[in-house]
Amino acid sequence: MIELDPSQKAPLYEQLYAALADEIRTGQRAAGTPLPGRRTMAAQQGVSVNTVDTAYQMLAAEGLAEARPRSGFYVQSTYGMLHSRARRTPAAPVPPPAAPAGPVPLYDLSTGSVDTALFPAHSWGRIQKELLYQRPELLQRGEMQGDAPLRAQIAEYLSVYRGVDCTPEQIVVGAGIEYLLGCLAHLFHDGMAAIENPGYSRTRTVLQNSGIPCTLVDIDREGLPAAALEKSGANLCYLTPSHHFPTGVTMPAPRRAQLLAWAAAQPGRYILEDDYDSEFRFDTRPLPSLQGMAGPDGPVVYLTTFSKSLAPGIRIACMVLPQSLLARYRRDFATYANTVSRFEQQTLCEFMAGGYFTRHLARMRLAYKRRMEAFAAALRAALPGVELDGVHSGLHFLLTLPGAGGERAMVAAAAQQGVRLRGLSEYYLARPELCREDTVVAGYSALREEDVERVAQALARAWLCTPSDG
Amino acid sequence: MIELDPSQKAPLYEQLYAALADEIRTGQRAAGTPLPGRRTMAAQQGVSVNTVDTAYQMLAAEGLAEARPRSGFYVQSTYGMLHSRARRTPAAPVPPPAAPAGPVPLYDLSTGSVDTALFPAHSWGRIQKELLYQRPELLQRGEMQGDAPLRAQIAEYLSVYRGVDCTPEQIVVGAGIEYLLGCLAHLFHDGMAAIENPGYSRTRTVLQNSGIPCTLVDIDREGLPAAALEKSGANLCYLTPSHHFPTGVTMPAPRRAQLLAWAAAQPGRYILEDDYDSEFRFDTRPLPSLQGMAGPDGPVVYLTTFSKSLAPGIRIACMVLPQSLLARYRRDFATYANTVSRFEQQTLCEFMAGGYFTRHLARMRLAYKRRMEAFAAALRAALPGVELDGVHSGLHFLLTLPGAGGERAMVAAAAQQGVRLRGLSEYYLARPELCREDTVVAGYSALREEDVERVAQALARAWLCTPSDG
C-alpha cells in the first residue's frame, strides 16, 4: 500500500519511515505486531534491504518500533503510554485574539512599527542563505558578548556615525534592550534609577522587575534637568538625549555637560544613554553621543537597537559598557550564552561589512523624509491651525490642534475614523497635568505614502466641525 | 572617473551614490566643495537626471552632502565632526583569542557541542528563505510569549513526546534557558532555590545573579532526595529528572512522587524541571515529564531547549508555566518584546508542522546511537577494565577507569594526547569528596564516527602503561 517516489527530494528510506510512522500513529499497525521482514519489505517496495533497515532503525530510534533479538522489528508494544495522553487531551486550539473595541483601525500611527517594504530582504536573504550553507560552525555556541566580527563592525559604525568611543571588547550584543537592561540591573543591584517623565514606561518596568527602584524626573525644554536629578537621590539615570521619547527634544550640549558632571561627581553614578532612533535625522547633523563626550572610561552605558534600522521582528540590540563595569560583567555572565542567533549576528555583520547597512539607512532616511514631508504638508492643509513638533528626526512627531476637544476626544474621534494614535499624556508616567494640551503622538513609519492624504482627510473629519454638518 | 555598470544588480542611483560616498569619505572630494550639477553629472555618466537626483538625496540623507537653496549640492561642510574622531581613534582590532594552555585538542569530548553535519540545513534554509520573501509581517514585533502558531506546535510536541500537559497559552518562548530562568527569578523574587549537586553550575549562577539565593543538595542514586530537600529550607527546586546532568541518573517514579508531594505540601513551592536532552534516549521509552504527573495547575515549571535538538547557535528555548504563575507573568512582562527573532520562530514552527522536526530527531537518534555504540565498543576494547555508565540516553556518558592515576591525572594525560574531556568532580558545586573516583565525563556528540577508534587509542596511550615502554 505504501507508495515510494524516487523523484521526490526526500530519500527513499525517509519516505518509507514516514509512511510506516504514520500507519503506527494512526493505529493501522497495532502495538506489538511484527513489521514485515526486511527482505520481504525490500522486495515489495523494490528498494534495497539497507533502505528498509535504515527506515526501521529510525522507527526504533523514535520509539515507534522495537528490535527483538533474532526476531525482527515490532510495533512498539508500550507505544501509547505517552501518546494516549495526547489523544485524550489534544493541545487546546489557540483562541482568536480578543476583538478590539470599536472599529478596526485602517491606519496605524502608533510608534514602533516599520515599513516592511523598505526591508532589504534580497541582500539579507542572500547573506543568510550563504552563511547557512557555508558556515556550519555557526551552529555551535558563540561568544558570550556576541561574535567578535559583529562587535568590530558595530564599534566602527558607532564610532563613525554616533561618535561613540569604544573598542569591540566593550560591546555586548543581546536580544533587545529589555534583555540588556536586565543584565545592567544585576550590575547595579543596589542602585536607584531616575527615569524621564514623560518617557518609556518599558524602561521603568524592566528595571523595577529586575529589582532596581525607579523615580521619575520631569523633563523641561532641554531634557532632564541636572538639578532635579541631583535632588532625586538616584545614582542611575536613564536618558534619550538624541531624541527624547516621545517629545522629540534634542538635549543641547550645555545640558549634556551638566549631566556628565552629575555622573562624575560621585563614584557609582551612571548614565544609561538610549540612542534608540538616532539613525533618523533629516535636516541636521546629529550631536555625538553622550558616551563619546564621556570617553571609554566615562560613567555612561550606551544602548542602541537595530529594531528601527532593520526591523522589530529581528531581535538585535547592543550596549557599550564602560571599562569600569566590563570586568564585573564578564565575571558574572561568563557562563551565559549570547541571546542572539549566530546566523542573524553574522548576517548583520556581513550586511554592515559589505556597506549594505549604511546604504540601507540612507535609502530609509530618504523614504521616511519624503513621507514625513508629504504627511506634514497634508496635515497642514487639512487641519488649519495645527502645530507639528519634532519633524526633523525620528519616526514620529507631536501634533497639536487647539479647539478639537482635547487629547482624549481627539484620540477617540480619530479611532472612529479608523486612525489609531495615542495621546501625549499616555506617555506621562506621573503628573499628566504637566502635559501639553490638545496633543497627540503621530508615528508615520508604517504609513504608506499613498495613504497620507486619506489619513489627513480622516483626521479632518474627526477633529473639525464642518459647518455644513451643523 | 566613476564607472557605472548597468549589468550589476544594484540600481544605477545606488552605484552612483556609493561611488560618491566613497570619494567623500576618503577625502577625494573636500568638505564644502560643490558636487557637479545634476544635468552635468547625468550627461557625464549617461544616466537620467532622476538617477543623479536620487543619489544626491541619499548622500544628503546620510549627512555626506547638503542641499543649498538655489545652488545645488555640496559636500557636507560639517562633515568630519563625527568622522574625525573615527580617523583619530579607529576601532581597535580584535585581539586574537588567547592561546590555549597545552597542545590544541584534536578531539573535543566536552558536552554542549553538536554534530553540525546532522543539521537539516537544506529544509531549514528553504523554509527560512520562503518566510523572508513571503511573510514581511514577520518583520514587525510579535507576541510577548512567542508567536502563537509556534507555541501550538511546541505544546503538541511536548504533549505527545514528553507527556507535558499544557495549552499553548502556558508556553513562553525565549532566547535560551538562562534568559527564561532570569524571568522566573523575578516571579520567585523572595525565594530560595535548591540545586542538584553535582549539577549545572550555570543554573546556580543565573539564579544568584537574578537575586535568588541557592543551596546545594547532594543527589543519591535516584536523584535528589526529598528528605534532604525538605531540610534545606528551599521553596524552589531545580531538577534534571529525565537525565541528571552529568551523572545520567533517571529519576524513578517513586522519587518523582515524593518530590511532587514536597512541592504540594506548601503553597509557593515549585519544581523547575529542566528536560534539557530528553530527545536522546536510545533503548527505552522515556518516563513522561514531572510536569505531566503534576498536571497543568501543578507546582512545576517545565523548561527545555532546542540547543541540542537543533543547534546551540540557534537560540530557542521554552518554558511551560503553571496556571498559578501565568497571570503574574503576563502582567509583569506585558511590555517586553520576545527575545527570539520571528523568522527563526516561524522557521521552527513550519519545521515542526511539516514533520521535519520529528524526522530530524529520529535521524539524529539513529546517528548518535550508532556513534555511541561504536565509541563504547572501541573504548571497551582499548581500555581493559573500563566502566561506562549512562550510555542509554543523552549525548555523554561517564567513563571510570581504576588504576589510571585518578581523575586529574586522567584529564591531564588525555589532554597531552589531544583529547579534551572533563573530570566528574568538576561538576560538583560542593563536597567534591563525594565524587566517584577515577571518572571522567565523555561527550560524543561532536565526535566524528571515523575518529572513534583514534580517540580510543589516544586514551589508551594516555591511561595505560604499556609494558614494552617500561
| Counted beta strands of chain A | 15
How is the largest sheet of chain A built, in terms of strand order? Answer: 4-10-9-8-7-5-6
Q: Output the radius of gyration of chain A.
A: 29 Å
Shape of chain A: globular
Q: Average pLDDT value of chain A?
A: 89
Approximate helicity band of chain A: 25-40%
Looking at how many chains there are and whether they match, the oligomeric state comes to homodimer
For the record, the count of structural domains of chain A works out to 3
Provide the CATH top-level class of the largest domain in chain A.
Alpha Beta
What gap, in angstroms, lies between the N and C termini of chain A?
A: 76 Å
As for the CATH topology of the largest domain in chain A, it is: Aspartate Aminotransferase, domain 2
The profile of the biggest β sheet of chain A is: 7 strands, mixed
Q: What would CATH call the homologous superfamily of the largest domain in chain A?
A: Type I PLP-dependent aspartate aminotransferase-like (Major domain)
Assign the CATH architecture of the largest domain in chain A.
3-Layer(aba) Sandwich
Secondary-structure class of chain A: alpha/beta
Largest interface: A-B, 108 and 108 residues
Strand content of chain A: 5-15%
Number of H/I helices of chain A: 16
InterPro entries (chains A, B): Aminotransferase_I/II_large, HTH_trans_reg/aminotransferase, PyrdxlP-dep_Trfase, PyrdxlP-dep_Trfase_major, Tscrpt_reg_HTH_GntR, WH-like_DNA-bd_sf, WH_DNA-bd_sf
Protein name (chains A, B): PLP-dependent aminotransferase family protein
Family (chains A, B): In the C-terminal section; belongs to the class-I pyridoxal-phosphate-dependent aminotransferase family.
Pfam families (chains A, B): Aminotran_1_2 (PF00155), GntR (PF00392)
